[in-house]
Amino acid sequence: MEFNDGNKWHYVTDPDAYVRAHPDMYEMRTCSALNGQMYIDPQFGPQRRLLQPRVRGYLHYQFPYENAGTPERQADFFCNAIGELRPNEMVMLDTEDASGLRDPANFVHRWCAVVEARLRTLAWIYIPSGLARKLTRAVTGQRVVKAPRYSGHAGRGTPPTWPYDVWQYTDRGPFPGSPHGAGDRNFTGWTVDQLLARCRGASGGGDRPVLRLGSRDSAPGGPVHRLQRILNEVLT
């Protein structure tokens, strides 16, 4: 399966063209931060309305920054932007070298503790090569891992050498339905149904237990943080 991911610079304006090429999946940035201030991508709402009902799987992601607040604050901002997660939707934490995270593993654990409890789903984790030694399977557990290794052209090249489930293989690939030129392309051997089941369970998350807790409960040393550490140890 192949799919594109969008943001305010690259997005779909012709949904028919995109769905003809990639009926299974679309990925869109939900929010990020600038100079420490979090903001919602201006194309988040329009792209969700345009494509979410028409593709089989839809992925939301957040680009975090160390200077944008605690992991709990950024996770709450992300969840508030999404609202209710729909049955065909999944979420991802887009950890990047540019995020400047002082302790990436701690950030991932704390962010996931909030997001996974609020949205009733396991998150995907985006892991570039620069963070691969810090964000190992011991940290991510059974979560879907997306890894970038660009080919330098429109096709696939050498895949990542660290563990991954989804490969972002180029930033120069065709982007059907977008007038903004070449963009990011992704490949995975997993089907949408398999990814949804892996993240949300066969029932789409509806039968998963939900912890109705706030950010204080998810702080370091809090009950959610302790539970998350136990779960990661069990799952790995």
User: Given the structure, what is the number of helices?
Assistant: 7
The CATH superfamily title: Glycosidases
Strand order of the largest sheet: 1-2-4-5-6-7-8-9
Q: Averaging pLDDT over every residue, what do you get?
A: 89
Radius of gyration: 17 Å
Strand content: 15-25%
If you consult CATH, what is the topology? TIM Barrel
Poorly predicted regions? 202-220, 231-236
Architecture (CATH level 2) name: Alpha-Beta Barrel
Counted beta strands: 9
Largest sheet: 8 strands, mixed, barrel
**What is the element string, with H for helices and E for strands?**
EHEEHEHEHEHEEEHH
Description of the molecule:
This protein is of the alpha/beta class and 236 residues long. The protein has a single domain, classed as TIM Barrel. Helices cover 29% and strands 22% of the residues. It contains 7 helices and 9 strands. It has helices at 15-21, 44-51, 71-82, 104-119, 137-140, 192-200, 223-235; strands at residues 2-6, 25-34, 37-40, 57-62, 89-94, 124-126, 145-148, 166-173, 183-188. An 8-stranded mixed barrel has the order 1-2-4-5-6-7-8-9, surrounded by 4 helices. Strand 1, helix 1 and strand 2 form a beta-alpha-beta unit. Helix 4 crosses helix 7 (223-235). The longest helix is centred in the middle third of the chain and has 16 residues, at 104-119. It is globular. Residues 202-220 and 231-236 have low confidence and may be disordered.
